[in-house]
Amino acid sequence: MVLVIDPSIAGISGDMLLSSLVDLGAKTSKIISGVKEAQKFLINSKIKKIEFNKVNKHGVNATGLFLQLAENFHDRKGIQIQECIVKTAIKIGLSENAINFAKDSIETLIQAESKIHGVPKNSVHFHEAASIDTVIDILGTAIALDDLKCFEHEIISMPVAVGNGTITFSHGTVSNPAGAILEIFKKSGIFISGNNAKSELTTPTGAAMLVNLAKSRQYYPLMKIDSVGYGAGQKNFEGFSNVLKLVLGEKSTIQMDSVSILETNVDDVSGEVLGHLIEKLMSGGAKDVSVFPTLTKKGRPSHMISVIYDKKDEDNLAKILISETGTLGVRIRTSDRLIVPRRISSYKIKIQNKNFTVRCKTSGKSFKIEYEDIKKISGRLELTFRETEELIKSEVKRQLK
């Protein structure tokens, strides 16, 4: 199963994530009884009332969290909130995955504040996040995820809307997104995007939970939908529904992802240069390199070089392509692709009384032997590449039966 978290329109907050999980089917009685245990570990904070009710958000029927709290504090150290969350999670018997998720989420908040304000983690003081509602959001979400067995699923996130404009809080007025949001999402791999909503759409608590829960994707996977949950935010907007959408379903065995592609045309490069270029690009991180014969302007015979790669390797691969060919321009594009899941498996085989280990890309009963392993064994046995490949295939097939 796969759980898609979709904050691409209205962003994400702690109560929106918790409420969307309730809308998806998490038991409210289990959540409410669990978070109330946290009162024992956080003095001067009482939960007078906690409910999950249906609410209409700009035409969308969603579930919202409604709280009445009795609290008396100015601020609290982040580690106090963390201790409360972890102690409660252990006391109510959450799974190890749920405990780690809750602990890591609050740790992410503390680390972000520590970095922004330049203070040690043990000295970080929370203001807005010092309320027991932070505990309710993180601990309640951990309970709900456990109840729905979501830690057994693949969890992915669409790009996150952060809003626009400015934000005023305990440290004054800053541009949106604020420093805490940027610090939390930094190096997480999750994409963010602004829009014309002059308001904070994604809160630090929501962001902290998201980066500890999901991997980023730009598109929904190929899936059959089982259920959908909508979690309402506190604000109302004219142009859109302030809800977080969760989609749970069965992922197709054929998966979809996206890759980046570099392309250029060259008409003055020899075959030797192209051969060297392919090796250098593959060593530099390219997933694959193709060279196609083409005919360009003025009837010139030329070659189109196409490089498939991950975005993180873009600068390095572009430099290699330019420096090795002398091209004056490189095209960059993104392409969706359907892929059959596969894994790298190792097999111990014996040929001519000699033992070898070979790696194969396998998908079901289909497999493809790694080129370098065939080449190495071919040299050891003093056989042709083709003869060696057939002998290895025979040994691997015998083990797959």
What does this protein look like?
The protein is 35% helix and 34% strand. With 401 residues, the protein is of the alpha+beta class. It is globular, with a radius of gyration of 27 Å. The protein has a five-stranded mixed sheet. It has helices at residues 14-24, 28-36, 78-91, 96-117, 132-147, 179-185, 204-211, 271-283, 314-325, 371-381, 385-400; strands at residues 2-6, 45-57, 60-71, 76-77, 125-126, 154-157, 160-163, 166-169, 172-175, 192-194, 215-216, 223-232, 243-251, 255-266, 288-295, 301-309, 331-339, 343-351, 354-363, 366-369. The chain has eleven helices and 20 strands. The relative contact order is 0.13.
Please give the structural blueprint.
Layout: E1 2-6, H1 14-24, H2 28-36, E2 45-57, E3 60-71, E4 76-77, H3 78-91, H4 96-117, E5 125-126, H5 132-147, E6 154-157, E7 160-163, E8 166-169, E9 172-175, H6 179-185, E10 192-194, H7 204-211, E11 215-216, E12 223-232, E13 243-251, E14 255-266, H8 271-283, E15 288-295, E16 301-309, H9 314-325, E17 331-339, E18 343-351, E19 354-363, E20 366-369, H10 371-381, H11 385-400
Parallel strand pairs: 1-6, 6-11, 7-10
Antiparallel strand pairs: 1-13, 2-3, 4-5, 8-9, 12-13, 14-16, 14-17, 15-16, 18-19, 19-20
**Overall pLDDT level:** 91
What structural class results from the helix and strand content?
Answer: alpha+beta
Main sheet summary: 5 strands, mixed
Total domains? 3
What level of helicity do the residues show? 25-40%
Q: What spatial form do the alpha-carbon principal axes imply?
A: globular
**What's the helix count?**
11
Strand percent estimate: 25-35%
How many beta-strand runs? 20
Radius of gyration computed on alpha carbons? 27 Å
Low-confidence stretches: none
Read across the widest sheet, the strand sequence of neighbours is 11-6-1-13-12
